[in-house]
# Entry
Amino acid sequence: MNAAELILNPDGSIYHLNLLPEDIASTLILVGDPGRVPKVSRLFDEVEMIKQKREFLTHTGRIGKKRISVISTGIGTDNIDITLNELDALANIDLRSRLPKENLVSLNIIRIGTSGSIHPDVHVDDVVISGIGIGTDALGMYYEHVPLHHPLLPEWSYMSQRYPFDLKAFTLPYKEGITLTCPGFYGPQGRTLRMPAAYTIPINDLHHIQIQDLAFTNLEMETAAIYLYAEKMGHKAISFNAILAQRLDGLFSENSTRTMDTLIDSVLQWIVRSIP
# Structure
């Protein structure tokens, strides 16, 4: 691949993330908000590396002997396209020759994010693990994907699934369901302020749909793309969602900071106990 396809910075780091291969661990936590990165890394025993470019902030450190990187992706699947391609390049492409390595590495990719419930039994401050991601963004059109044809969803929707990690050591109560990944926060998630919608996602009806014994539980803006890219590139991905809004009841969490802090702590404990 040429220099316009795999772009490097003058120091040899990859273009958007501004990282070198040695900067990342094989276990990576993805968060949207750059401000959430230090909330994760403050629980590390040590932080060995901090780098930032644009909205992409990375801290790499250790808990005991376990090396972990936490990276902010910003909002949306377009940024997941950047983040996952560049993380895979750091792990699996020789940046000097711009050729894939002979021995490929499978990364552990763990999303910790916020989300809104679209299921009557999923409440504010609950935790949802995304068993399946359904994307209504356009990324699936550019890569091989599993299409999902359902009259309540856009015809371009695609389906992807989490890696079957062992969750026995995850200590928080959780529900597992189908996460709808949307290409925006307002119209694409069924919100209208002043601008009328030409297409409406029927959030009140989606929880009736079941796929592989899972129901639609929540919606957000990254999970389906993370799962799609991980599946296609041979990585292991899982998405943990803190439910801050109950869209069916019109409620928003009064304890959002505590809910997210508790989820972060529990996910880190699970990583240390469960991921080699």
